[in-house]
Design a protein that fits this description.
Elements: H1 2-32, E1 33-36, E2 40-46, E3 49-50, E4 58-61, E5 68-74, E6 78-80, E7 88-91, E8 97-108, H2 111-118, H3 121-140, H4 158-174, E9 178-189, H5 192-263, H6 265-281
Antiparallel strand pairs: 1-4, 2-3, 2-5, 6-8, 7-8, 8-9
């Protein structure tokens, strides 16, 4: 009986010890190790001294706090559109006030430099906000208002301005362990005090464009009309010249007949009467007329009177 109790006590003792060892192992693992996720980069700080090499993803071991502490940073890109002064008035080159908001896409490229100069993301974005306000003011001050808002897309220089802001912001942020990927204009608003003047200017620009198109159309119409008049005059001149040639030929032919008629007046009278008779009778009209009246008198002429003397030979 006594031996059985002893064995039971020993078994319980070993079970308790094993459980204690497991708990101790888990505790020591938590204290002496840390996990870095795939999207993170870690820095090991030993007695306030930052390690020169960042730690990548995986399970790593360390000395417990306060000997060593771990700072983790998200290495993904962030979109930051500012905090203080997110949308504020900015002066253009020609003196117009516009309400502008910009954004930046960035990530932590060098955790060691970033931690030494900025410590954490909160301080980093406060600093980044100040840089963004500075480059925004400087850049927008180099351009006129019509290069921000215009009915003609070719006049708008927003892409050029974004590139300029990116270059300046990227150069500044690189010294702080930050990589700036992109800078863009988020919003451009017009204060109420200048809205009316802007609309008036845009209306005047449209009216000017319309006047230009109308003037161009009028010039084209005048050009077409002038060309048409020139062609018309040319055609009329050619037709008149052709008609003159035909008239000249007709006059020449008529002159030949006049010469014959002058030598043979009876033939001329006969042909005139015959032509008149042909015209009167061309519609098959039945008439009862005196054949003694011209030109019907030729109907009762005998064959001898119709003989026409031959044309005399040329002397």
């Amino acid at each position: 009986m006594t031996d059985g109790n002893e064995k039971t006590k020993v078994t319980r003792h070993w079970a308790t010890m094993l459980l204690g060892l497991i708990v101790a192992a888990i505790f020591l693992t938590v204290i002496f190790s840390y996990q870095v996720e795939e999207r993170e980069t870690a820095l090991v700080i030993t007695l306030d001294k930052v390690s020169s090499d960042p730690v990548g993803p995986g399970l790593h071991f360390r000395w417990p706090y306060p000997i060593q502490k771990i700072e983790k940073f998200d290495n993904r890109y962030r979109v930051f559109d500012g905090n203080v002064g997110r949308l504020e008035e900015t002066l253009t080159k020609d003196g117009h006030n516009v309400i502008v908001g910009i954004y930046a896409i960035y990530k932590i490229s060098d955790p060691v430099v970033f931690f030494k100069k900025l410590v954490d993301v909160t301080n980093a974005e406060d600093t980044l906000n100040a840089w963004m306000r500075s480059v925004k003011t400087e850049t927008f001050g180099r351009y006129d208002f019509k290069q921000l808002v215009n009915v003609n897309p070719k006049e708008v220089k927003l892409s050029e301005m974004e590139g300029m802001m990116l270059d300046k912001l990227r150069a500044t942020a690189a010294d702080y362990g930050i990589e700036v990927k992109s800078v863009g204009v988020k919003a451009i608003n017009i204060p109420e005090t200048i809205t009316e003047s802007v609309f008036t200017r845009m209306k005047n620009e449209r009216a000017k464009e319309a006047a230009t198109f109308r003037a161009r159309g009028k010039r084209e119409a005048e050009k077409i009309k002038t060309e048409a008049d020139t062609k018309s005059r040319k055609v009329l001149a050619e037709a008149e010249a052709e008609a003159q040639i035909i008239r000249s030929k007709g006059d020449a032919e008529a002159a030949k007949y006049y010469a014959v008629f002058k030598e043979n007046p009876e033939l001329a009278i006969f042909l005139r009467k015959l032509e008149s008779l042909r015209r009167v009778m061309q519609d098959k009209t039945t008439l009862i007329l005196d054949t003694n009246s011209a030109p019907f008198d030729i109907l009762k002429m005998n064959s001898d009177s119709l003989n026409v003397p031959a044309k005399p030979a040329a002397k």
